[in-house]
Design goal:
alpha/beta; Rossmann fold; 7-stranded mixed β-sheet; globular; binds zinc ion
Length: 406
């Protein structure tokens, strides 16, 4: 397999098995049918440092019918509205400007631009989610973001003063197409920001469960800068955000634009080099720690079961399914997975077939332990479930190493 960015040969380092798509929750009447499974293996490119999946599942198979809806998470909604406010203030956006978001989901981020009277447009490939955005009054093109859509938008709407893509650039296997599309649509002095989980957080906190088929890339600054430069774009700033277990938000402009580089870019590159993100040994060490987490988590769950304890899961997140499938945690170890997304309740988790029940079930049912699968939401979940905790329930967080929250 060759690097999707620079075409060099990839070095595989982490094999998570052959698993169903992490967001393909099942209806009860489909449980008996065979599920499509795909290899989930991660590789490293020594030439451009891009960490990526070794196998590609076509995006058309993944993103046309998607159940992740942004607005169901209050943490993410607040984060997006702060991002919109910051972009307006920092880049001086006004009513004459066009803001384009790709992978715009239900329009939550673009809603954040509404109070400023700014013209916005979303690009979202999942038909069901694009319809939700439209019904909330967010203008949305139902398509995949790439060079053809960028050329059409430029012709119809003009160039964009601000383009943003949050947790989406890693979902598009054609990284060169994404960068080309941005370069096509971006105004001469415009700014492109993306937000993506940060590779060094993934390594430092052993967040192996953020690996799933939808997520082709695990970005460092050095790999992103390399991909952007090939298309005439320059990284002039980067911020580090706590959301989704640790994310980066780099800012890009055209190579010849007047945006001054901030010290954060050079500092970030230097820190990455010290962390070893450009060496295969770093990734081999990570793979060893992942195997240890699986062993420790399984021994705890078996111990609880042997002691007659009841254990549930919380958070029917994509990352939870990577963890459940890789570790082999099924109905013999967990009773169910609770979640507050009504689109997921009543379905079953892919691969392990655990039923998804409403979040309120925890307080009624009071299992002895609850494994938090959406650990990036652990603070929100623990505070929302105070009744469960006060009744003696305990939360178990799997990452960066399995630990009971007291
Ligand atoms: Zn490469």
């Amino acid at each position: 397999m060759r690097c999707r960015s620079c075409d060099a040969e990839l070095l595989p380092f982490l094999d998570l098995g052959t698993t169903p798509l992490a967001n393909s929750f099942l209806r009860e009447d489909h449980l008996a049918e065979p599920e499509p499974r795909f290899p989930l293996e991660v590789g490293f490119c020594e030439r451009c440092t891009l960490v990526q999946l070794m196998h590609t599942v076509p995006p058309e198979q993944i993103f046309r019918d998607y159940v992740y809806v942004t607005a169901t998470s209050s943490t993410i909604t607040e984060h997006f509205h702060a991002l919109a406010r910051e972009a307006v203030e920092r880049f001086g956006l006004g009513p004459a400007d066009l803001v384009v978001e790709f992978g715009s989901n239900d329009g939550t981020l673009l809603k954040g631009f509404e109070p400023y009277g700014i013209r916005t447009l979303g690009v979202e490939p999942a038909t069901n989610i694009a319809e939700i955005a439209e019904s909330r009054g967010v203008r949305t093109v139902n398509d995949f973001f790439g060079p053809p859509v960028a050329r059409k938008l430029r012709a119809d709407e003009g160039t964009a003063a601000y383009i943003v893509g949050c947790n989406v650039v890693a979902h598009i296997p054609d990284i060169n197409g994404t960068m080309e599309a941005v370069a096509t649509l971006l105004a001469d002095e415009g700014v492109f920001q993306l937000e993506a989980p940060y590779l060094t957080d993934l390594l430092d906190k052993s967040e192996f469960d953020t690996v799933y088929h939808e997520h082709f890339f695990y970005f460092s600054l050095s790999a992103l800068a390399f991909a952007a430069e090939r298309h005439g774009l320059r990284m002039f700033d980067v911020q580090h955000e706590p959301v989704h277990g640790g994310s980066i938000r780099p800012s890009f402009c055209h190579a010849g634009a007047s945006h001054e580089p901030t010290p954060a870019v050079a500092e970030g590159h230097e820190r990455e080099h010290r962390r070893g993100i450009d060496r295969i040994e770093t990734y081999a060490d990570f793979a060893r720690r992942v195997a240890q987490i699986r062993e420790r988590l399984l021994s705890l769950l078996h111990e609880y079961r042997a002691g007659g304890r009841r254990v549930a899961g919380y958070g029917a997140a994509a990352k939870g399914n990577t963890l459940l499938n890789y570790c082999g945690i099924g109905p013999e170890l967990l009773d169910y997975v609770a979640d507050k997304n009504p689109l997921k309740v009543g379905l079953y988790t892919p691969g392990m077939h655990l039923p998804v029940v409403p979040a309120a079930r925890l307080a009624e049912d009071r299992p002895d332990y609850t494994l938090i699968l959406a650990w990036n939401m652990a603070d929100e979940i623990v505070s929302e479930q105070s009744g469960y905790r006060e009744g003696g329930g305990r939360f178990l967080v799997p990452i960066p190493e399995p630990a009971v929250v007291t």
